[in-house]
Amino acid sequence: MPRFVLIEAPFHMGLEDTAVGRGPSRFLQAGADRALESDGVPAEVLHVRKRDATTSGLDAIVDINRQIRTAVRDTIAGGGCPVVLAGNCNSCLGTIGGMESDRVGIVWLDAHGDFNTPETSLSGALEGMALAAAVGHCHDDLRDRIGMERPVDAHNVLLLGWRDLDPDEPARLANSGVTTRGAHELSGAESLLVELRNRVDAVYVHLDVDCLDPSESPGVNFRGPGGVPLDCAAELLAALARELPIAAIAITNHNPDYDPAGKTAAAAVRLLQAMASAFPSRAPR
Question: Are 220 and 209 in contact (CB under 8 A)?
């Protein structure tokens, strides 16, 4: 089993190669497999496709996430670290479901909290509820259908790099036990990693590329001011690889329609290189 295995899931809410669903192929075109090469051999790439082209909506999302779960589980069982290239953040449910660990931690890098529920969401969009669903605050039925057997303890979640929360999210996050640091509060965040390491056996790292400064990552739907500078993000991700038992990684939410020059895909490849170079020489834990 290669050290890293890329799992391409090119979907936007169950639709293939549409909007952010086109992002995964751009990551591959920019050299994501070469960024994770081992002994001069590019990372293996697995491709997720819908089993039934006629499915749509939640049924399609469940189908895609089940396949992600299986690919993640098999990669970990073989001693590799899965890196999911996905359109949407709801891919976290399949990824975490495939980790099959009792003590999972999450490091969630995102411009948004993704911590709404159907009752608090302004838009009703599932994407704004992905992290909330992962910690068991909503969409239990969706988690069950995908095969994510248990939600993650919110006290084992770090939400880093946010800069745009919906009105009800700050209170919900504060009451949940999630530890948060905004885009301009990341200095010293490494100390949080040591604390997390002592509480978990396996960590899922979720990188939504809209957390980056839009001048360096314009290929996203949300390009509000601020954001994490690329250099800072690279340093942080390298620290994650050094300090935490990373079991799975995902990079999500790249919309190439807003980035014909390919800056976001190139930024994502740089971040993968930063993580890969800092991983222990042994197989990822």
Answer: yes
If one counts every other C-beta atom within 10 angstroms of the C-beta of residue 232, the result is: 18
Beta bridge partners of 16: 11
Q: What does the pLDDT read at residue 39?
A: 83
Both ends of the chain: CA-CA distance in Å? 14
Q: Average pLDDT of 260-270?
A: 98
282 burial level (CB within 10 Å; 0-12, 13-18, 19+): exposed
Which one, of 145, 136, 164, lies nearest residue 220 by Cα? 164
**Considering only 2-6, 25-29, 224-228, 241-245, which range has the smallest mean pLDDT?**
2-6
As a whole number of angstroms, the distance between CA 204 and CA 187 comes to 21
**Cβ atoms within 10 A of the Cβ of 79, count?**
12
Q: What is the pLDDT of residues 36-45, one digit of tens each?
A: 998 888 999 9
Token pair, residue 17, equals: 């190669």
pLDDT over 70 at 281, yes or no? no
Q: Is the model's pLDDT at 128 over the cut of 70?
A: yes
For residues 230 and 214, the answer to whether their CB atoms sit within 8 Å is no
Do residues 116 and 168 make contact, with C-beta atoms less than 8 angstroms apart? yes
> pTM score, two decimals?
0.96
> Region 186-199: what's the mean pLDDT?
93
Q: Which helix (H) or strand (E) holds 81?
A: strand 81-86
Which whole-number Å values give the CA distances from 110 to 136, 154, 178, 239, in the listed order?
A: 19, 16, 14, 17
The pair of structure tokens assigned to 280 is: 């222990």
Q: Which two tokens stand for residue 202?
A: 């396996």
The overall average pLDDT reported for the chain is 95
Q: Which domains does the chain show, CATH number per domain?
A: 4-278 (3.40.800.10)
Cα–Cα distance for residue pair 268/53, rounded to 1 Å: 29
Two structure tokens written together for 251: 């990079």
Bridge partners of residue 162, in order along the sequence? 182
